[in-house]
Specification:
By secondary structure, this protein is an alpha/beta fold. The chain has two domains: about 260 residues, Vaccinia Virus protein VP39 (Rossmann fold), CATH 3.40.50.150; about 100 residues. It contains 13 helices and 16 strands. The model has no long low-confidence stretch (mean pLDDT about 90). Bound molecules: S-adenosylmethionine (SAM). The site of S-adenosylmethionine has 18 residues, from strand 10.
Length: about 375
């Protein structure tokens, strides 16, 4: 059933399919402002002239494909400008783009993106934990690729970034802009006998990180250089819609087969974690969850403070907020008052943190809650 304008736009798109042809022409067939996220892995323009040899004279499997050949930097730049123009046009006003490349092309691509009005938000170094050695020993081993994350314009106010989800997955540490991920190998690498199906198949872990961080289930992700279909496989797993564009039939066939074998992850594993909405300590008084004159205790009951009608605390003539007074009593430079103070709940007989009462307040006010607290309460209720 179609309900919203977003659904109508999505229904008109060739979602979960691969368009065959030149990406600039194919993108022209997509409506303005219809795509949530673009992931692009364009040709590198490596300009390889000689065959690369190992010290034992065996031939290195380098990127010498026909699709990576451009006559000159000017031709490469003109092509880059054309596809980026189309990519920018099809992005929603809240959309964003990720582009990956090597030192051969990423600096040209980045400059053209800025010229076209994109606003760069981060560059990420994909640090390859198992890079190909520098066989001739005349340069540093080339152990990373660079990804650029950009929004459509400087003025664009909102874009998707599931900050809380990825931080939680990183054991509550902010995710940095250097990502250690091995190159695609083993059973993930598509092969035709001993030969690789695609010379530059990207690891699913890399694209998964991007889709988890910058899109939600149901979003439409466009990949104009689809290759072996890595973006499609990850999108299907994470229940995003994909649109792939690719010129070569054999890659399209391999990608189609690959995606058909992917099992989508269950719905409940894909919910993004959003920051709980703010509730002030005063709101607990407004909602009668705490009354003026009531005492708040430190967890070990070593001290108690009286709640004033204005929401401040009073401890033996010392006044302050839940955070300030908590820090004074704990002799710390600062503290989170929500985790510091506890109350006796006379109805349930429990000794609970005021953070628990804050969650009740969020519920009463119809605000977004703290998913970790909700999970804790659920498991407690089951016991
Ligand atoms: C760097 S590879 C992408 C690899 C892909 N990310 C993967 O994981 O398999 C670039 C791909 O873009 C395709 N390509 C190059 N120029 C194109 C164009 N103008 N239109 C559509 N596809 C193009 C090539 O055939 C190649 O498969």
């Amino acid at each position: 059933m179609i309900n919203t304008i977003t659904d109508v736009v999505t229904a008109a798109l060739p979602i979960n399919s691969i368009l065959q042809g030149d990406c600039v022409e194919c993108m022209k067939s997509l409506p303005d402002g219809s795509i949530d996220l673009v992931f692009a892995d364009p040709p590198y323009n490596m300009q390889l002239s000689d065959q690369l040899m190992r010290p034992d004279h065996s031939i290195v499997d380098a990127v010498d494909d026909e699709w990576d050949q451009f006559e000159s930097f000017e031709v490469y730049d003109a092509f880059t400008r054309s596809w980026l123009t189309q990519a920018r046009r099809v992005l929603k006003p809240t959309g964003a783009i990720w582009v990956i490349g090597t030192y051969h092309n990423i600096h040209r691509v980045g400059a053209i993106m800025q010229d076209l009005g994109f606003w760069l938000m981060n560059d990420v170094a994909w640090v390859k934990s198992n890079p190909m050695p520098q066989f001739r020993g005349v340069r540093f081993c080339n152990a990373h690729e660079t990804l650029i994350w950009a929004k459509r314009s400087r003025e664009q106010r909102s874009y998707k970034f599931n900050y809380q989800s990825i931080k939680a997955g990183n054991e509550d540490l902010q995710v940095r802009s250097d990502w250690n991920i091995p190159i695609c190998s083993g059973s993930e690498r598509l092969r035709n006998g001993p030969d690789k199906v695609h010379s530059t198949q990207k690891p699913e872990a890399l694209i998964s990180r991007i889709l988890v961080a910058c899109s939600d289930a149901g979003d439409v992700v466009l990949d104009p250089f689809f290759g072996s279909g890595t973006t499609g496989a990850v999108a299907r797993k994470l229940q995003r819609h994909y649109i792939g564009i690719e010129r070569e039939t054999h890659y399209i066939e391999a990608g189609t087969e690959r995606i058909s074998q992917v099992e989508p992850a269950p719905d409940e594993s894909l919910m993004p974690i959003n920051k709980p909405q703010r509730v002030s300590f005063n709101a607990l008084l407004d909602l009668d969850l705490i009354q003026p004159g009531q005492f708040l205790w430190l967890e070990d009951r070593s001290a108690k403070a009286l709640v004033r009608a204005d929401g401040a605390l009073n401890y033996n003539g010392m006044f302050g907020s839940i955070h300030r007074l908590g820090a004074e009593l704990l002799k710390k430079p600062s503290c989170n008052g929500w985790d510091t103070w506890f109350v006796d709940n006379h109805t349930t007989g429990e000794f609970v943190s005021i953070d628990d009462l804050r969650e009740d307040a969020r519920k009463l006010l119809g605000l977004r809650g703290n998913v970790f607290m909700a999970a804790k309460r659920k498991s407690k209720a089951k016991q």
